[in-house]
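Quick one, T. Sequence first:
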Amino acid sequence: MRADIVIVGGGPAGLAAAIAASVEAPSLSVLILERDSELGGILNQCIHNGFGLHTFNEELTGPEYAARFESQLAEHGIKYMLNTMVLSVSSGSVTAVNSTEGVFTVSCGAVVLCMGCRERPRGALNIPGLRPAGIFTAGTAQRLVNIEGYMPGKKVVILGSGDIGLIMARRMTLEGAEVKAVCELMPYSGGLKRNIVQCLDDFDIPLLLSHTVVDIKGRDRVTSVVIAEVDSSLKPIKGTETSIECDTLLLSCGLLPENELSRAADVAINPATNGPVVNESFETSVPGIFACGNVLHVHDLVDYVSEESARAGKAAARYVISSDPGSSSVISIKTGNGVRYTVPSFIRPGVVSDNVVIRFRSGNVYKDSFIEVLFDGEVKMRRKKQIITPGEMEQVILKKSDLESCPSEITVAITEG
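Structure tokens:
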């Protein structure tokens, strides 16, 4: 089997990358391999609105947003295979399996990794207690309620204030459950400000910062959880324990990019993001393998996923068409004060056609501070920001003209006002 470009994953990243690649080079064949029974990925269970404000200038639900892209597949002649699990990838081929073809290999000119991310489970959190029914990740609960039509429980405590946890606090309340509290280990929320307001404040659901679950009670079913305050080292403070009666505990404790295939292909991984190290074209350390979306780093907005993935799809198409390896000069991007990571990790200025978007997250909450971009230690750009939080991704945009001086190193930092 042969395809010019193989897209691994048919969620929002995969759909955007496939369409952009086809638009960039209509003569190329594009194939999407998706392990689920339908395209759209996680969007299919996100029935709340708020998607598409940047991409379509209107509010859409998750399924509506995915449908906009799916309708374009036939227009561009993009083929896809559902219920197909990818087993391995390399710069020239992808091996997969499904019930009709068995194990098969697709030879290709480029691969775009769009596998998304998964939730951190209870086993990774080391919470004491037995294994009673009633403990779910927030995403699993979302699927049960929105797609399967089941209520996970009636009295709910949520651990973690990521966006999925915040949205499920509202969703469970609307379905008749009582959400007792949302507990957050950190002294700040991990979700968007608008979700805190719309999902918690509007429903009088308490957000307990610097709190965590230290014990789960119940043998057959959760009967209560014990929460406690944590100190500056994130360790529970003795004597602050409080028991909350509940039958359900939802875990919203972070997302992990799905990079087993990437690691097996010897793609270099950034330990700060758990995603591949990429350049300005979203090409990984393995030539011909690109990565975008939540497999690269966890995003706040699906609009950013689509924008980033479109760039990756176009770059993959250009890679297949051109034999030119690109510029030999490389500018590395470093993290300065207050910045956890940047994407991309380096830039080839000779390849940049218009501009480069550098996205990053802070490591703490900063108020009335400055985002700075330094070229070889000298401040090139400086922008004031009223508030910077780890829960919201930030970005700086460098024009091609900015790179003409060709510094050896660019640093993104946060300085307090």
